[in-house]
C-alpha cells in the first residue's frame, strides 16, 4: 500500500490540502504537539472552506450529516475517514478561544458563527458597499443590508456579525444605529475628515 | 678472514667514515626524492586545477561526474568540501564549496519547514525530492551523495542533523536533536514498508515483537510526535502513521 498525500480538488473548485488525505488527520491526537498541528490545520481548512462556500454556521452535528454542506471537508470518502463530533467540538472550542469563531447563540457550545472575516474586516466591506451603492446618509434596515435585491458581499450575513461590524463603524463615527419601525436600522455617515 | 673495514684500530675510523658517507648519501637521496615529489605535487595540483576549471560546469551539473570527481579527490586525500575559508583554492576553482553550502541551506529549509508534519524526521528520497523542487531542477540532479556531503558541512553548526539508516536501503534525515532508539528505527522501517503505517500487529507478526513491547514503543513515538494515531483504520481498528514516511505532494 502506498499512501501519497496530495491536494484534492472538489467539484466546487475548492482544493483540499494534502493533510486532508492523511488518515490520522481525522483522529484527535493524544500528543499535545501533534494535536496543535492538527487543530491549526483544521481551523485553516474550515475557515477557508467557509469563505469559499460563504458558510457562516458550523455545528458539531455537521460531523454526522452525510451529504450536508460540510460533508466534503469533514469527511474523506476516498480514504474512508471522517471527523467525529467530539473531535470537531474540540476544534470549534479552539476557534472560539482564538477569536476565529463565536458561539451563537451564546451559552451553548455546539454551534458557532465563523469569522472567516473579522468584524473589523466586515465593517470595512460594509462601509465600502454602502458608499459605492450610494447609501451614505440614508437609513437602512438590517434586513435591507443582508437581503439586498442585488446580491452583494453582505448577502446572508448573520445579524450578530452585522451588529458587530456596525458597532465597529459606530465607534469611528462612520455609522449610527437607529431604531426603525420594523426592527433595527443604521445610517452610514460620510467619513469625518482626516479618516 | 677479511672484514669489510679491515682489522685493527684503524678499522673503527674507516667504519665510521663509511657510515657518515652512507648517511650523507641517504640525506641527499631523500632530499632529491622530496624535491621530486614536490615537483610532482605541483604538477599534479596544476593538472587538477586545470581539470577542475575546464570541467567545472560538468562537475556542477552532472551528478555522476561530480561523484566520480569527489571519489577521486577522496582517494588522493584532497577534500573538495574544504570551505572558502579553509581551502579557498577549491572553492574558487570549482565554486563547489558554495554549491555544497547552498544545498546545505536548502536542506535545512526543507527539514525545518516540514518539521511540523514529520516531527523532524524526513525520508531521504522525500528530502531530495523537496530540495530538487525548491531548486527547480529535475529529479536526478541532486543525489543522495550530495545530501550526505552537505549534511557533513552542517556539522560545525551543531544543528544535530544526522542520517539514520533504517534498513532496506532506506535512509532518514533527523533534524531535531533527539535520540532514536533501536525500536524506533525498526518501526520506521516497518512504516516504510506500508506507506507510513505501523500497527501493533505488524510489529508482532513481521518483527516477532511481544505485544506489550510494540504498544509501549508506539506510545513513545506518539508522545514524541513522530507518529499520529488513526482510530478509524478499517483493517486494524487502530493504527499509527509515521508522517515522515508518507509522501507529501503539494
Automatic annotation (TrEMBL), chain A:
Entry-linked InterPro entries: ESCRT-II_cplx_Vps25-sub, ESCRT-II_cplx_Vps25-sub_N, WH-like_DNA-bd_sf, WH_DNA-bd_sf
Transmembrane feature ranges: none
The keyword Methyltransferase is assigned to this record: no
Matching PANTHER family: VACUOLAR PROTEIN SORTING-ASSOCIATED PROTEIN VPS25 (PTHR13149), VACUOLAR PROTEIN-SORTING-ASSOCIATED PROTEIN 25 (PTHR13149:SF0)
Lineage of the organism: Eukaryota, Fungi, Dikarya, Basidiomycota, Agaricomycotina
Keywords: Protein transport, Transport
Molecular functions per Gene Ontology: protein homodimerization activity; structural molecule activity
Record protein name field: ESCRT-II complex vps25 subunit
Signal peptide location: none
Gene Ontology biological process: protein transport to vacuole involved in ubiquitin-dependent protein catabolic process via the multivesicular body sorting pathway
Gene Ontology, cellular component aspect: ESCRT II complex
TrEMBL record, chain B:
Gene Ontology terms: cellular component: ESCRT II complex
GO biological process, one term: protein transport to vacuole involved in ubiquitin-dependent protein catabolic process via the multivesicular body sorting pathway
Domain of life from the UniProt record: Eukaryota
InterPro entries: ESCRT-2_cplx_Snf8, Snf8/Vps36, WH-like_DNA-bd_sf, WH_DNA-bd_sf
Any single Pfam family the record assigns to this protein: EAP30
Family listed: Belongs to the SNF8 family.
Protein name (Swiss-Prot/TrEMBL): Uncharacterized protein
Amino acid at each position: 500500500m502506498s499512501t501519497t498525500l496530495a491536494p484534492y480538488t472538489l467539484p466546487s473548485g475548492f482544493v483540499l490540502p494534502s493533510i486532508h488525505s492523511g488518515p490520522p488527520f481525522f483522529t484527535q491526537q493524544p500528543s499535545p504537539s501533534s494535536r496543535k498541528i492538527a487543530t491549526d490545520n483544521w481551523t485553516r481548512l474550515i475557515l477557508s472552506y467557509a469563505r469559499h462556500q460563504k458558510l457562516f454556521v458550523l455545528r458539531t452535528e455537521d460531523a454526522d450529516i452525510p451529504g450536508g454542506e460540510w460533508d466534503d471537508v469533514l469527511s474523506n470518502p476516498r480514504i474512508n475517514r471522517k471527523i467525529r463530533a467530539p473531535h470537531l467540538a474540540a476544534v470549534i472550542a479552539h476557534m472560539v478561544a482564538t477569536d476565529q469563531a463565536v458561539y451563537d447563540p451564546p451559552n451553548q457550545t455546539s454551534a458557532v458563527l465563523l469569522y472567516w472575516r473579522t468584524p473589523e474586516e466586515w465593517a470595512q466591506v460594509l462601509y465600502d458597499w454602502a458608499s459605492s451603492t450610494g447609501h451614505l446618509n440614508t437609513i437602512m434596515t438590517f434586513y435591507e443590508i443582508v437581503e439586498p435585491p442585488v446580491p452583494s458581499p453582505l448577502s446572508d450575513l448573520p445579524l450578530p456579525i452585522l451588529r458587530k461590524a456596525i458597532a465597529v463603524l459606530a465607534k469611528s463615527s462612520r455609522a449610527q444605529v437607529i431604531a426603525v419601525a420594523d426592527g433595527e436600522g443604521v445610517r452610514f455617515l460620510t467619513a469625518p475628515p482626516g479618516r | 678472514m677479511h672484514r669489510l673495514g679491515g682489522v685493527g684500530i684503524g678499522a673503527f675510523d674507516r667504519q665510521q667514515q663509511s657510515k657518515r658517507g652512507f648517511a650523507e648519501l641517504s640525506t641527499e637521496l631523500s632530499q632529491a626524492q622530496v624535491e621530486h615529489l614536490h615537483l610532482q605535487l605541483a604538477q599534479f595540483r596544476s593538472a587538477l586545477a586545470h581539470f577542475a576549471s575546464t570541467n567545472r560546469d560538468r562537475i556542477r551539473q552532472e551528478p555522476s561526474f561530480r561523484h566520480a570527481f569527489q571519489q577521486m579527490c577522496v582517494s588522493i586525500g584532497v577534500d573538495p568540501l574544504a570551505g572558502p575559508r579553509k581551502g579557498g583554492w577549491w572553492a574558487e576553482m570549482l565554486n563547489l564549496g558554495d554549491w555544497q553550502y547552498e544545498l546545505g541551506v536548502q536542506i535545512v529549509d526543507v527539514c525545518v519547514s516540514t518539521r511540523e508534519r514529520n516531527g523532524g524526521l524526513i525520508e531521504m528520497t522525500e528530502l531530495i525530492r523537496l530540495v530538487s523542487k525548491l531548486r527547480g531542477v529535475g529529479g536526478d540532479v541532486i543525489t543522495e551523495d550530495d545530501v550526505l556531503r552537505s549534511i557533513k558541512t552542517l556539522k560545525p553548526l551543531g544543528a544535530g542533523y544526522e542520517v539514520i539508516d533504517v534498513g532496506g536501503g532506506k535512509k532518514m534525515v533527523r533534524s531535531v536533536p533527539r535520540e532514536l532508539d533501536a525500536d524506533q528505527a525498526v518501526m520506521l522501517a516497518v512504516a516504510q514498508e506500508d506507506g507510513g503505517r505501523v500497527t501493533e500487529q505488524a510489529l508482532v507478526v513481521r518483527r516477532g515483537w511481544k505485544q506489550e513491547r510494540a504498544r509501549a514503543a508506539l506510545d513513545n513515538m506518539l508522545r514524541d510526535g513522530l507518529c499520529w494515531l488513526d482510530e478509524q483504520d478499517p483493517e486494524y481498528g487502530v493504527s499509527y502513521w509515521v508522517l515522515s514516511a508518507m509522501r507529501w505532494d503539494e
